[in-house]
Amino acid sequence: MSLHTPYDMSPKTGDFLISSPKILDPRFMQSVIFLCSHDNTGSFGLNLNQPTEMIVSDLIPGFDCRLTVYEGGPVEPNSLHLLHHSKDNIYGGLEIIDDIYLGGDLDEIVNGIKKGNLKQASCRFFIGYSGWNEDQLVQELIEESWLVQPADAKKVFNRKSKNIWREVLTEMGDQFKLVSTFPIDPRFN
After folding, report:
1. Looking at the 3D structure of the chain, how many domains does it have?
2. Shortest CA distance to 148 belongs to which of 163, 136, 138?
């Protein structure tokens, strides 16, 4: 079964990368990556459905924030990243697509949440990230390791992100609805 769609060979910043059943790396099985940056020098994304056991308070001492921290990917596992949709409250945030921003001044983020100006529901924290060198992602697309779809803010900030892989595939049509029923490791089917 070919997994190609008319859209899948031209990823761009702000897209979802949806892992295909061909990926056997457990870090990316049934994953949805939000592509924060993609150009001819490489790609940077955050895995939306890999929660850790940590909460934000574990990483920022003195900050009482019970939000789950997600594993953004295996690159630089000690780095902290934030996706949010509150551009007016965070200086330095980089707009990825409409209503989704990356990062910003950490003190402003903490103070915004403490004061209630920045709602916790509009923030996602990640440790590490997913990264690809130059043409690496394009090669993985040719090998049908990933599918590409435009992202939407509702899915990016959905707290029930464990199901996002199946949800996105189901919305892509009948061919992909079948793929969404595959077990994590097809060898066990």
Report:
1. 1
2. 138
